[in-house]
Every structure is written in C-alpha cells, then in structure tokens.
Amino acid sequence: MGSLTVSYTKPPPFCSIPSPSPVPEFKFPAILRGPSHSTVKFRAKACVFPATDVDNSGDNGYCGSNRRRMLISISALPFLFRLNQSVDEYCAKAAESDASTYVVIKDELGKVVTKAKAAGVLRLVFHDAGTYEKDENSGGMNGSIVYELERPENAGLKKSVKILAKAKSEVDAVQSVSWADMIAVAGAEAVSLCGGPTIPVTLGRLDSLEPDAEGKLPQESLDAPGLKQCFQRKGLSTQELVALSGAHTLGGKGFGNPLVFDNSYYKILLEKPWKSSSGMSSMIGLPSDHALVEDDECLRWIKIYAEDQNKFFNDFKTAYVKLVNSGAKWRSL
Ligand code: HEM
C-alpha cells in the first residue's frame, strides 16, 4: 500500500455542529472553558485604570473595580496562564491522537482493501458523500450509506461495506472511528494502492443515525448539463465533475487497466470507442461518461487531464478532499 501523509488540520469552524453519533464526541474539558489569557489581560487593564483615578467604591460602570478585585484578578493570572498552556497541550494531544488513529485505520485497511476491491471502495465514497445538497445543507459524508444499501443505485456496495466493517471493528477496539471517517480514508487508500495520488484525509466526521434523502445521486442517463447542475448543487464545479469522474478509470467500465489509477479514462474518452460498432469497444464507459466529451467545457478539462497526469492527480486530490468534507458534521474540539 502506498504511503499516506498523516495530517491533522482543524476542521472548518462551520462544521462544529454536533449530531447524534455512536462515536463518543470529544468533550472540551470543562476546565478549559474559563476565561482566556487575553480576557484576563483585558480585565486587569480595565480594572487598573479606573482604580487609580476613581475612588474605590466599586460603582463605576465598567467593572465595579476596587483594589481587592484587581488583586484577585492579578493573583489569578499565573493559574489561568497555566490553563492557557493546557489549551495548547490539549490541541497537540488531539492532533497526536488523530495521527495515531490514522495509522491504526491505515493498517487495518491495508489488511482488507486489495487492488481488486479498490474500485468498489472508491465508489462507496461517492455514494456516501454524493447525497450532499448545499442549499438544503443535507446529506453528505456522514456514513449514512450503511442504511442505504438496499437502494437500487447502491447495488453491489454491500460487499465493500462488509470489507470495511471488518477493519472498522478492529479500529474501534483501539479507538472508535466513525463510518464517515472510515470510508473517507478507505477511498484515499484505494486510490493510492492503485498508483494514484496520496490524499491526506482529516479525521473527525460524525455519523448520521438515519439514511439521507433518496434521489440525490446523479443518474447515469444524465446529459452534461444535467450532470453539471447536479454537481453544482453539491458545491462541485464542472472541473471537479470531470476530475472526480476520472475515478471511473478503476473498475470494469473499460478505461484501461481496471486495477490502475491513471489518466487513461481521459485518453480513452477522447477516442470515443463506444461509437465503434465492433465488439467490446462499444461497451466502454457509461452514458454519463460519454456525455462529458460532448460538452465544450468538460472537453477542455478532459484534454488537459489526458495530456497531463500530474495535473489530474493534483486536481483529483483537491476535489476528493472537498467531496469527503461535503456536508460533514465534525466532532467538537
Ligand atoms: C458523474 C456522475 C457519476 C455517475 C452517473 C456514476 C455512475 C456509476 C455507475 C452506474 C457505475 C457502475 C456500477 C456497476 O458496475 O454496477 C459506476 C462505477 C463506478 N463509479 Fe461512478 N458515477 C459517477 C461519478 C463517480 C464519482 C465522482 C466517483 C468517485 C469519486 C465514482 C466512482 C466509481 C467507481 C470507482 C466505479 C467502479 C466500481 C466497480 O467497478 O466496482 N463515480 N459509477
């Protein structure tokens, strides 16, 4: 399995909405909820000035200050300063714990995700995250796919979930992990295993306890304008639609070696083999893949990625990170 960058980035602030989850939420230690260092500084300052030129009656409008209060505030500084140091320590520990959890997840995935299973695992990512609707702020990367496996569009994904369930139970024995994190990391591992880019995935997604709304994934019969609109509703651009569709290079749709993640998807799209009446060539790709080449804006990106695999890898990486963060609710830190 290819090496994966272990990175910890703080989840975006808008994502800190806790939702019910079997994964124990990080509780910010109560002790750290006290005033911050800067708050203490402000108080000390606000109390010092009136106290020098106003009497000590303590009834001025700002802080009712008197020397006693000032002394209490100042004497509290070393103690609160120690608390402030603890915030840094706490964050460092959280980052450290995520990094070690990442290693455990990666190890366990390494035991179950083979090249032959990589395509199914990567498809699972899109089917979990792809329910996201930006305007409704619904769906997204929340592990709800585990409740949606009977839906026709998810046919064939049960085996991928089963594979990951084995790895997840091993990880849970050490440190509980959400389905959403497990699937997000598994997809990145699948890509890297098959020779694609190394994709760093942030941990901390919370799982939904119910299925997402139905009918949010794009149908394979959509034309290019339909696909673009569908992706736009998920906050994904046309360029990201084209880059992410490159995932179809893995699996059995006829885009080069089914076990190798490379840019052959784009090279083959440009040849339009499905126009050929001869044998297997006409079977290559899905109607949605064929539609992309018929659209000028998509075609521009297809040509770029067909010529430059590095550019494809970089853009895929960026779009993948966006996809697995779509609609995610993050545990609070
Ligand atoms: C653009 C809209 C998309 C449509 C309409 C679509 C639809 C489909 C369909 C119908 C299949 C065939 C499933 C089967 O063989 O039973 C498939 C396969 C696959 N899809 Fe997509 N998909 C889309 C985008 C994506 C994205 C964004 C990803 C991941 C980032 C993805 C990953 C995959 C993979 C890896 C496979 C191969 C699975 C295998 O062979 O086991 N797809 N897709």
From TrEMBL:
Domain Plant heme peroxidase family profile: 118-333
Alphabetized SUPFAM superfamilies for the sequence: Heme-dependent peroxidases
Keywords: Heme, Iron, Metal-binding, Oxidoreductase, Peroxidase
Enzyme class, broadest EC rank: oxidoreductase
Entry cofactors: heme b
CDD domains: plant_peroxidase_like
Stated name of the protein: L-ascorbate peroxidase
Gene designation per UniProt: APX6_3
